[in-house]
Amino acid sequence: MNQFDGIKRALEDARKVGVVGHIMPDGDCISSVLSAGLGLEKLGKEVRMIVDYEIPWYYYEFDAVERIHRAGALQNWDPDVILVLDASSPDRVGDVEEFLEKALVLVVDHHATNHAFGDFNWVDTKFGATAQMVLKLNKALGVLYDPELALYNFIGIATDTGFFRYANSDVQVFEDAAELVRLGANPNVVASTILENKKLEQLGLFCEVVHGLKIECDGLLAYSAIPWNAFEKRGLSESDAAGFVGEMRAIRGVEVAVLFSESKEGEIHVSMRSKKWFDLTETAVHFGGGGHPRAAGFTVKAGEASLAEVVESTVQYLKIRLTQRG
Ligand code: AMP
Ligand code: MN
Ligand code: MN
User: Fold this and answer.
1) What's this model's pTM, rounded to 2 decimal places?
2) C-beta 299 within 6 A of ligand 1
3) DSSP tag of 55
4) Protein residue closest via CA to atom 2 of ligand 1
């Protein structure tokens, strides 16, 4: 039995399903969890949707996001199956990791860096978004779409393709998006909620990022760092910097953009983007993270290194590889 059929069969047979996304959730993660979770509910399953991390505030404008809980919701519940979406390794599910031993684990993901940590692993890098894989799975399971489900499913396709601009925006992306629009998804609602909903403080923070921007390697590398106090003094947190690294990549001549953000606890998240040819997955994996060729990242635990040290080692590593080719 192939992986897709194994996952479909396991979901058909299951009664209680935990549907789980990754920490530091993005649009694809939230969309995939909601689409799979609400889809399975339509089939009469008992479902709990889990993202073991704070969800960026603007996503709460989509009503069903309130139904997503932290890992504690799996306590004393004993799901038959845990469906893990858009997460490349078990450390990406937060405290859900401890529940993975007790249930059948089904992994659906589009990261080349996926560790295949499930009992069944449907991992396919040709999909621009995990949300497309969920659409395919829902259709195979016979889920009937209403406009609300179509909108939730559309979110992941839109966000993981940079609203249909990135290199992963292929024919299948447009076909799946068109199908969801036909089923009632409103692209303008998705775009305005996610893109045109900035706090003024976020623009202030972006000014600081631009102010601290460094350009090296003959203009190929752009990077900037946000210390915790820059978030704190504006009442912001790390997810409020979403999109900044994309703006840095947009600079003419830049091939690789890197944004370093420090959390309240001192954890450092490194968010990387490339434009045309640099494959970031190798760098991300080298530092213990993962991702895609044009968007990848890693996280350095609090206390392991300072912000300045992480900047130094990452920039040094990238500079060597950029000069080799550039
Ligand atoms: P970000 O830069 O955080 O928006 O992430 C870009 C891509 O890299 C996404 O596909 C993430 O799933 C992946 N990624 C980011 N951080 C990590 C990490 N710590 N471990 C594995 N993958 C990551
Ligand atoms: Mn994701
Ligand atoms: Mn994704």
Assistant:
1) 0.97
2) yes
3) P
4) 271
